[in-house]
Amino acid sequence: MSEPLVAAQLATQLGVLVKPLTTKETDIWNSSFERQFDLVWPQRNIEVLKQFKTELLLGAMIAKEQMNAEIDGESPSSGKIAGPLIIRAGFVGIGDDWEDGGTITTGTPQNWLHSGTTLLGGTAGNAIRIGDNLVVVVVGIGSLHPSPKIESFQFTIDQKTKPAVITGWPLKKSDLNLKKLNTAMIWKKNSQVLGKVFASAIFGATVTDYPYLLGVAYIPEAQLRVHDPYDLVGTSANRDVNKVIYTT
Predict the structure, then answer these.
(1) Which of 111, 164, 195, 208 matches a 20 to 30 Å C-alpha distance to 99?
(2) What was the pLDDT predicted at 181?
């Protein structure tokens, strides 16, 4: 059975609304995935992404339904949907890049994906909310720091707190600091997401780490033309034109 058909079956099991991909869209999706990920990313990352290919395609079908347009790869034509894309830090309100998450206080869980980032400027500890023009599929979390210190992370999705996931990063010295999720997370319109991280006080009062989300994103072509992450944010009336990411 083809991967798009398996993704459609998964949509039925999960009870989510989708629009099936055409053969042309599937071919564009596969080519885009190869160019962005398969040919350039570390092998470990590629292995994880491929293990979740059904869920990544399901994200495309959800985006097609949600945004009522065709999937058209990483450089879409006008009026179409960009995707699969590397998840941009600004899409989820972190900042200009993943390094903008800031220093982490040790010894207690700390906010990471939340409304109180510098970019979002909302209330610390409140969830972020996905807008009309974004779908994100998360299959893992990694670190861009050469010596990562985050011991574990935890997500609360739509007010439901998930089990904490232990990274194991401080226990190994590797350039492949990546933790695969047991189950992919698909964040679509109105999904509320709060992500927290924990680092041991053995490293001092604060540590520096650069966690990032491994997965893919889907966003309309018009919003992909927005170069400054500041303009993606919808925190007030004059910053609500792109409908990508909100505070709560």
Answers:
(1) 164
(2) 96
